[in-house]
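Re: weekly structure request thread

Next one in the queue (780 aa):
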Amino acid sequence: MSPTQTPLAPQWSEIFADQLADRPIDRVAKAHDASHYLLRPQGVLKPRHLDDIAAALKIAHSTATPVTFRSGGSSLSGQAGGSGIMIDVRRHFQQLSVQDGGARVVCDPGLTVQAVNAYLAPYQTMLGPDPASQTVATVGGVVANNSSGMACGIDFNTYQTISSLVVVLPSGTVVDTSRSDIDEFLRDREPKLYAGLAQLRDRVRGNQDSLARIQHQFSMKNTMGYSVNSFVDFDLVSDIFTHLMVGSEGTLGFIAEACFQTIPVQPKTATALLVFPHLTAATDALSALLSTGARTLELMDPASIRAAAAAAPADDPIRAVTDPQATTLLVELRATDDAELAASRQLMDQVVAQLNLVTPARFTSDPAVRAELWAARNGLYTTVAGARPPGTTALLEDIAVPLPELSDTCNDLTQLFNDHGYGDGVIFGHAKDGNVHFMISLSFDNDNELNRYDRFTDDMVDLVLAHHGTLKAEHGAGRIMAPFVRRQFGDELYDVMRQIKQLFDPQAVLAPDVLLTDNPRNHLEHLKTVPVVDPAFDRCVACGYCEPTCPARDLTTTPRQRIAVLRTLANPAEPERAEIARDVAYDVVETCAVDSMCVETCPVHIDTGVIMKGQRALSHGPAVQQLGRLAADHWGGAVTAVREALTVAEPLPKVPLTAVTKLARKIVPTEWMPQVEADLPQPGRPRVGPRLTGADDPAPVVGVYFEACINSIFGGAEAASLGVRGAVRQLAAAAGVQLLTPPDIGGLCCGTVWESKGLTNGRQAMARRVVDGLWEASEQ
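Done, posted below.
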């Protein structure tokens, strides 16, 4: 434990002995999210069911322990990190129920948006919120942040499509707002909360200034502050309760279950990239384009286009936009059938014909061409974040303004970037909603940089509010905009929000300083620095996109967490460095699957599998490397020995063998001694060559069949199993061709055995033999 850290109350370890992770490495790994804030929790709790959550909140309430909820950890504004107990609900809260033929779906907070939509696909429905991060963003975060996205706007966001919630309050009370007697239940179980919400409803409705502010603020995408529009939109306290939880960012209670009203899938699409001579021409066209029913209108300013074009392939459509002032709108129509799409296209063509375009518009429904058009827009985060200077942070922010203010807002933002020395700033986003994101690269390594960021933030707040906008449209107020909620809503509504927090969380234990704060410098504290450690992972922005694909995510650490730990270890001033280093070998290096699936989803293309292979190689001394080389040189014999061992073990009782191999693994390195269990497979059959596989002569030989050595070690579950070898033989025969097995196949291997374990000498030796063997077998 850090010398400055307050010990946890003993109740936590007494009640949650096997669910609380409080080793330094656990706390470091979980501390990082997609924001530029970093608070290290005292412990990470992984509850298994609702009762655990209720018990945890009761302890937090009685011991004044701060609590933060975490699932996907893709939040950008600092709401997913805290210094007390972090409650990780990703693993054990992933249940789902589709109801009413797909018209509604009830889901747990740990499910990703993508997973929920996959369940809904057979019903031709989907969730209304469509965040760009849906591969990692979870239901809990979607509700807590009132997520929206590219297409849903404010009509189909979380607030509009939520039907009911199950909520655990800080008192431990579990509230299911789908109950028929929910208002009576709330009045009976939480009388102060019930009465207080009713009084606030009447207070808001009786204040004309509050009504006017709410009407304006929530006519836009808006995730600043609490959803005080619920006091106007609903009469029943239970409905107000439900909708106050939406966008509450974990500060009012735990969202244990959410029931959404779904929306129909519109499978027919047509997409075009409209190129305008300048930004004002693009924004002036928005109203006309919206009249056609366009579902998405994605803006890219000139700086965005230059950044995207620099990283795009030569034939990418964005490379054709060469005018330095050009601005693009990516326009997409969606429909339920071809007739509806044709009608929309006809209307769109009439509108587009009147626009001031640099090049003619070309709408397409071809999936491949549409993917090319979307690539530049979807890849902007990747492009800018990946190209940022080493040691800097990619700050992605979002605002919304009324559509008539969008042109001036974007121009003023560009000027603001230049005034403060953020010349790499780009602006892009959901233009149809007046919602744009901007990205700048910055550093928090010294006071000068911090002061510059402080001045920039103050000027940006003034700019947006002067344009009658909201400082947060999608990402939540979090820590970054909590100090400015009062400025946006005024004293009266800010006090209403203060009362909401007091009613739900009187001890203020849930996510302190998130969404609301008394600290005017809250946004400047606990900022995350990004030390330059290794070019292989310095680009990591801790977004968490890698986590859903990681096989070890529920065992030890994920790619994001592995990098966070390595960065922490690189800091010689880290007070818990020795304790973290003690656990790195297993938690970070050994348990990585090194399958490189993470690079497929990483926005900045980091291959953590390759990094971990390098770490394993560094951990091996010369003797181990030589042993790996020896195994490569005698691989045929090693495979035969393992297969023969399986042959000997097959008739023997498995219980004694399990005990013997467990004992042996304490003496021999575990990577060389497998553990025998009851499900031990049968031995395989030797690989031999040269041999032709497939059709009979004189069928042509069309390729080389390089059979994996695992097929000759392990056989099928049953003696009659066809196996991979038999399947390949049948496939080649059906195709009327033959495949040639190399003569020395019995001693060859693809190299995974060595590469995955960091045995570089053996990998190199085997690679040379395989290349020589394939070169000969394929007749050069």
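The longest strand covers residues 268-276. The radius of gyration is 29 Å.
Next request, please.
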